[in-house]
Amino acid sequence: MCALLRFKRFFKTHFDLLRRNYCDTSSKSDPDLKHVLTRIFVLLCRYDIISALKGVNHSAIPPRAFEAMSRNFGISHECFASPLNRVSHSYNSIFPDVD
């Protein structure tokens, strides 16, 4: 069972970020946002399962470091990120179907 079901705790700031990202990227496929809660739930469960099975720590560079690399080196894409830790709007994900 997903940890979200056990603990029912999720920071509102993270939820707001995921919802805003969903609105930005899914406005054509889900204009009424009927699926936003389901898709956020699935996303969180998948990352929770991966963390439980592999002990994966979803670490990321600090946003200020990414901004400095973007400014100084023109970096605009993250190769390994998730909706939970991404800085750039352009990123690769392990779950592109829900991320």
UniProtKB/TrEMBL annotation:
Gene Ontology MF, one: mRNA (2'-O-methyladenosine-N6-)-methyltransferase activity
Start and end residues of each PCIF1 WW domain: 18-99
Highest rank taxon of the organism: Eukaryota
Coiled-coil stretches: none
PANTHER family: MRNA (2'-O-METHYLADENOSINE-N(6)-)-METHYLTRANSFERASE, PHOSPHORYLATED CTD INTERACTING FACTOR 1
Protein name: PCIF1 WW domain-containing protein
Source organism per UniProt: Helicotheca tamesis
